[in-house]
Each structure stands twice: as C-alpha cells, then as structure tokens.
Amino acid sequence: MKRFHVHAHVEDLTQSIAFYSKLFGQAPARQESDYAKWMLDDPRINFAISTRGGKPGVDHLGIQADSEDELAELKSRAAAAELSLEDEGETSCCYARSDKYWVVDPQGIAWEQFHTLRDIPTFGVDRQAAPAASACCAGAAPIPVKAAGSCC
User: Fold this and answer.
1) 150 within a domain of the structure (yes/no)
2) Most Cβ neighbours (<10 Å): which of 41, 95, 105, 141?
3) Which domain covers residue 81, as residue numbers?
4) CA distances from residue 104 to 24, 26, 61, 135 in whole angstroms, order as listed
C-alpha cells in the first residue's frame, strides 16, 4: 500500500518537532540533528521536516511505494500522463537509500515517487553547501519547484 509524502523546510527543528508530535499524537519515527520524520498510519503519510533547503514551507509532495512493483506502477502512470520524468534510480536522500524519480505537475509542483530500500546514517548530499538545491537532497534541483502562492 502506498503512502502519501510531504517534505517541509522549517527554521526551528526543536519547536517544529514539539508542534508536530502534539498534532500527530506521537514522536517522530526518525529524528536527527537536521531532520525528523513521522510514519503515520492514520492518515497514511510519510511527513518529513528538515532545516535544509530554502525558505520555510512545503518543499515537495510525493508517494512512497512499499515495493518495486508499486513504484513501477506509479512510473507507468506518469509515463501514460505524458509527464516529464527525472529518473534518479538508486540514490541517498533524507537518511535513506531509495529508488526514485521525480515528476512535475502542470503548475510546477515537484512530486517525488520512491521506494525506500534501507536507512542510512547520513542525510545525503550536503544541501547546506548547495543551497540552490531544491527537492530533497539532490545536489542540483532535478525539477524546478514553483514557489507557493496564496492559500486555497
């Protein structure tokens, strides 16, 4: 079963962890000095925050597949929708080794589609050294991300 994914940048990790832990009713499943992730079952979401990246706010959305078959199905749907696809293959990002690719919707919103292979001890590429990086921890943005506009 797939899981919805949201990654947001925050200024104060400690304050944000306290807020989201109360909001979700549980502590993060993974917490590092620059990152925290909740793997919620209700609603089924992989919600991650980090102090890496640009201004605070949502960085990207995505879908986490539980298997390679599910990831292949997602990739097939993206191809059928004639979306531009940036295939990263197996890569390190957000304290995990994953097989992933990116698509961007007609409004410029980046979507990460991935299958986590295993946890790793490092975030990945050092985004502090490459602040222009966008979605997740790529050294250079794989897909341009349009800045958020107004509410609803």
Assistant:
1) no
2) 95
3) 3-119
4) 28, 32, 10, 11
